Hints:
- It is a single chain.
- The protein is α+β, with helices and mostly antiparallel strands and 67 residues long.
- The protein has one domain (14-66).
- Helix content is 12%, strand content 25%.
- It has 1 helix and 4 strands.
- It has a 4-stranded antiparallel β-sheet, covered by helices on one side.
- The relative contact order is 0.30.
Amino acid sequence: MLGDNRVFPVRGQIIRVEAPWQFHSYLIDSDKSCYIIPNINCVILGGTKQLNFNLEVDDIDKQNILR
């Protein structure tokens, strides 16, 4: 597309949950992109790190993140 083969898509998927007791960020596995990031109104659970163009929410990825 852009003529630069060093550029490629990386798909990510997150889940926002309510967890007001969570104040610390965690990076659990940098290769698989598992993390917890607290925000003001929610906590972000992630994620995925897939080399593809898929823009859809994947239920299997969702279950893996929650697990």
